[in-house]
Amino acid sequence: MRTYLPTMPTQRLLGLAIPLTAVAWLVTVPGVVTTSSFLAVVGLVSGLLWVARATYENGQAPASLPQVLHDEAQATSFAPPRDDR
Prior knowledge:
By secondary structure, this protein is mostly helical. It is built from 3 helices and no strands. It has a domain at 22-76.
């Protein structure tokens, strides 16, 4: 099925994270942890997930041949000249 409004990975992630955070808030804040501790944990987990996702995306293979050629041109342009005498 073709969708005309594609969902971005960030939208899907927020669609899952917001309800989970709300449920965790309702279950833990009054009796288990304080509000500031809960917000600190949510901030820490969010930062860790952001780094993990960026690491995963940067580790993916190139999507196309022009991207590979562009990356190769960038890598060789900074190499020092070779002395082949």
